Amino acid sequence: MDIVLITTIIASLFLIIGVAEPLAARLRLPYTVILAVLGILIGVGAIFFLRTELTDALNPVAEAILGLPIRSNVFLYVFLPTLLFQATLGMNLRRMLDDWVPILMLAIVAVVVATFTVGYALSWASALPLAACLLIGAIVSTTDPSAVVTIFRSISAPRRLARIIEGESLLNDAAAIALFGLFMGFVMLGLPDPNLGQALARFPLLIAGGAFTGWLAAKVAVWLMASFARYELAQISISVALPYLAYIGAEQSVGASGVIAVVAAGLTLNLTGPGRLPPQAWANLREIWEVLAHWAGALIFILAALLIPRLLEEVRIGDFVLVGVVVLAAIAARVVVLFGLLPLLTMLRVSPSVDRPYRIAILWGGLRGAVTLALALAVTESFRVPDGIQRVVGILATGFTLFTLILQGTTLRWVIRRLGLDRLSPIDEALSRQVVAVALQTVREDVARTTENYDLSHEIVRSEAKRFGDRLEQAVHSAEDSVDILDRDRVTLGLIALAGHERDTILSRVRERTISARMAEQVLSDADRLIEGARSGGRSGYQRAGRRSVAYGRGFRAAGVMHSRLRISGPLVRMTADRFELLLSQRLVLRDLGAFIDGRIRRIHGRRLADLLHELLARRIEAVSTALEGLRLQYPGYAEELERRFIRRTALRLEEREYTTMREDGLIGAEVYTKLMEDLVARRAAAEERPRLDIALRRIELVGQLPLFQGLDDAALRRLGRAFQTRYVNEGDIIVRKDTLAKSVFFIASGAVELASAGQTWRLGRGEMFGQMAILLKRVGRVEVRAIVPSTLLVLDEARFRRLLSRSRALQDAVRASAEKRGIEPDGLFPNDNSQSKD
């Protein structure tokens, strides 16, 4: 085929891609539907001109179009990895974890239910063997990511709804293609009734093998990209190679699911990339992938649509009945999961609630597209599949895809509108009015400065200022005096605005590199939870999200168990270091929010709401400070090292700004600027290294680190080590309850505790002890002791404590000082006041 003609056709396809998006916006139709229609028209036109006797002038073009190397492998090995990989890079994984149960139900359970529902329905309605029917069920059970994501983004669907749909469409490809591979093998072997137990037994192996392959490939890629920190183009090139190598490696070498491998690789890069790559390089990498995915998604639709006329050439009347069976069975399977299983899981408190309008939108948003056509094409291309089965698979898959794209795709916007999901809630309406009022106030100040700088005519300035002032007054009045907003809704509006500004502040700090790239995604995710918490739950939702941002999660507790029981310290070290940096970042951002409350919110909502927001902000600052202080007590010196690192990063940012300003002002040339920046990049790489945190200590080492027992010889330490019992407690655990008889003394090897008695509280940290006064005074304890961070305690029973106290002068001095601090007379507490320190 003429290379010039092929190049012209490819360039024309990109021209169509460029025209399709504004055309879709003008017609108010989904972009993917326009691409599919254009592809079908091109395919029909090529067939028409090749077979008509009207003219032969366009035959070479028609032959070139129909002769394009469009094979199933092109879709599966070239386009599909691109789409899946970019989708994983663009996902907010931490936010998606909030809805992981409904996502997995739709991505895995719904695929399996749809496969078997469609398969057995077809087996009942046709003469096809069961294996072929299940193969068709697997082909039509996958929603297309490029179709679904593009449509939901174009209609401004609610973020949570779009998140569930995106998660489903991303992950269900893997499940459907894995099932497709299993049943395709049975069909090619000529087995009419497959061994379903054997098929399902292989399913977990395909997923596990693909996940491990993708994870390993991504880890190697991230290591290489981090090694080339100064070469951004090299990093982007490695990222381009990653999904294809992961896909081919899993499919060809491991025999696992290539789709799962690509998803695992993308998820791993999404989680680890921001912490290992420079912020600007990571942002540029994601932008490149957005462009690649846009082209791949558009080409896959056009090229797949070109095949539709050929796949439907042999359609018969009875095939329409089978297409109807497929449509009804697929919808019924989706209804079972959405309106049967999900509400049941919500009732059992396993899954968060998914509102009924959301479930209806998800039901109608289950579009099929190029992935379904590619799998059908793989069947029609296989010479090992009987001709009759090839024809039916091609027709049913194509017919079902056209039904979802043309009927569901074109009416999805109408369904969203009928469900009311495109309308702003009263809170959002009020928020929009608030945004207008705040924006106009800022604009008025900026316009005033501009008119002063340009020395414009006073009459013109006065008239325009009056006109603008009237609009501003109307906007402020609308924001303040909306009759449809209750006081609690005004609080919600203020909290949403505050959380939104917090997110903007975080983004600014990340760009300035005051907050490290490692923590950027987590602090942004916490800010998103604050926004959604305030939007859905008002003050209580905001406070819950704030407490969650400083709480120890299940992962942290699991890491603590691994450290204490299995002596595996790596996860706990990493999570503890992350927590230090997270709390420092939160404290940095929270202290900047007070000015926003006074400057913006007070002008719109008045002093009363501003004072309330100051109170809520003060509580968050106190919670962060308490958590940070607990870590300082637990690991003295580490927080100071992180603060030194923060100061170094800030100084480097300011230094870079000065060099850039001098370069722009012409004070230094390009050569000097390049040399200075090279030196700065090297110093920045060193400043980004986080100090090492060592928490893996043994009992004897813990005893030796306590100030009370320093200076003892090894034999004495070993005896003490045998006498002590080690106890690990998590944050919030009650160690000693009020009004209980004391039986032990506790020494804090690491961590921090809070003591509460008679309305007063005080804290103890590493090296201090508690419980000794209740034993020595022989009375029921009146103090409650609670851990404020995960802590390691050394516990000594009463008998051993008394023996140790009688021998250790240092311990006696510590007990005496503790008694004097509490106003207790220390005389008579010790059995032998003149003893020598022996052990």
UniProtKB/TrEMBL annotation:
It holds the Pfam family Na_H_Exchanger. The keyword Membrane applies. Gene3D superfamilies: 6.10.140.1330, Jelly Rolls. Keywords: Cell membrane, Ion transport, Membrane, Plasmid, Sodium, Sodium transport, Transmembrane, Transmembrane helix, Transport. It is a multi-pass membrane protein. One of its GO terms (biological process) is sodium ion import across plasma membrane. Residues 708-822 form the Cyclic nucleotide-binding domain. One of its GO terms (cellular component) is plasma membrane. Coiled coil: none annotated. GO terms for molecular function: potassium:proton antiporter activity; sodium:proton antiporter activity. Residues 819-839 are annotated as: Disordered. The gene is nhaG. It comes from the Bacteria. The chain crosses the membrane at residues 6-24, 31-50, 70-89, 101-122, 128-149, 170-191, 203-224, 244-268, 288-308, 320-341, 361-380, 392-416. This is Na(+)/H(+) antiporter NhaG. SUPFAM superfamilies: cAMP-binding domain-like. It is found in: Cell membrane.
